[in-house]
# Entry
Amino acid sequence: MKFHWLAAAAFCLSFLAPVGAHAQSGCGKAFTAKYHSKDGVGDVACDGKWVRAEIVSGLFYLADVSAGGKSTMLIEPTREYYEYAPGKDDDEEPIDLRACSNLRKLAEEYKGVTCRKTGTATVAGRNTDRYETRGGGAASITEFFDPELGAVLKEQKGGELSWELRDIRIGSVPSSLFRVPAGYKKVSEEQYFKRFAELMQKEEAKKKGRK
# Structure
């Protein structure tokens, strides 16, 4: 199962990279934030090895980014969830909150791609290191990495904003956010993607209604 948030959903949280993660690094400090892109706004929470993000209204992604950790999709409107272990599909890519996380994938497609620190910048009132991935004909990617939080706070592709985190609040995050609530029913991969499609249709309908 390959599911890249940038390509598969109109409302995306590429901050976390593709679903289906195997082990990588978690955040350095617990925090919550609002994710902003041209497609919408979502909630993000990170605490050590745990990451939680809202893809569309009512659909949440939970990830244990430690070695062997599981990933879970919560479907709030129907009180269902889909769970899977890492390594299920060779196409899966790791969650990586660090800078230069795009380098490996781009290097497979383009020769001469590099990623290096090019300076510093302030993002959402926080000090970040700016990293640039470029070369080989690939569109340049600029990431703004917060060394204290251990996470990229903003990304630009080809000079245009892809997404950024705002309203960042450092502090304890309730552990209940990273667990499947009581009373939720486990569903199959096929059932999950059916529910996902239904939620995306509703999200698109709401967008059209606001125009």
Remarks:
- The chain is about 15% helix and 40% strand.
- Helices lie at 5-8, 103-109, 189-210.
- The chain has one domain: 5-210.
